[in-house]
Amino acid sequence: MLTTQRKKAILDALARDGQVLAGELSVEFGVSEDTVRRDLRELAAEGLLQRVHGGALPVSPALAPFEARRDIETAAKQRIARQAAMMIAPGQTAIIDGGTTSALLVKSLPADLRATIVTHSPSVATALAEHPCVEVILIGGRLYKHSIVAVGAAAMEGISRIHADWYFMGVTGVHPQAGLSTGDFEEAAIKRALAARAAETVVLASSSKLNAASRFVIGEISLAQTIVVEKDADREVIKQIKSAGVTVVRA
Questions:
Q1: What CATH code is carried by the domain that includes residue 48?
Q2: Residue 110: how many CB atoms within 10 A of its CB?
């Protein structure tokens, strides 16, 4: 089998099964594991998959710059955002992550909602500046430009002073086995810290993020109590997420 044929077969298997194992591929193709690993390295360098120990996972397409992501899956993100906004009750404190879906979430908050919103996203805070009844607490730090959020030691210090009812988390990858992931090491740490300060963590996941993975792990899939997905999200993936004890809400 030619290299191009192997690579196509690998990508086809990823699309079908959600993961591939180097050992199984070497047997299927009749080549060494070193040859398969070379194929995986080259595909990863092209941005076509995410290598993990023993094999590979589908790569998340949600790693484009913030401006580019605004126009991706907009209708689906709006439905997910509206569903999430309905979870916040009057008097509650909610942490809202950065990202394009989070930006839509704050726009969906009722004009008469009295609540406290904590965020490390300047864009989320700015979007709420004119809200008449929402108190906004902005956590500062070094700006991670991809998601337009604060990261680093100063952000961690601010996060440690919070107790919240909800944390609405943005991710770039949601995979039943590989868990929740994102494209930046520091941002992954910030997300773990925010989840630890909330009674319930809700992940906002449009279809491009399901069954995909990025380089840095936030935590196991069970770090979230709830994941909000599109109404037509893949049934098999949803079944696996539910089997981990996570509630799935379709929007």
A1: 1.10.10.10
A2: 14
CB 14 within 8 A of CB 52: no
Per DSSP, helices labelled H in the chain are 3-17, 22-29, 33-45, 66-69, 74-85, 100-107, 122-127, 153-159, 185-196, 235-243
State the residue for tokens 């997910």: 80
Residue 49 dihedral angles phi and psi, to the nearest 5°: -155, 170
Euclidean distance between CA atoms 130 and 127, whole angstroms: 7
Contact 141, 150 (CB under 8 A): yes
Structure-block tokens of residue 21: 């194992």
Q: For 102-129, how does the pLDDT look when each residue is reduced to its tens digit (9 = 90+)?
A: 989 999 999 999 999 999 999 999 999 9
Helix axes 22-29, 33-45, angle to 10 degrees: 110
Enclosing domain of residue 183: 66-250
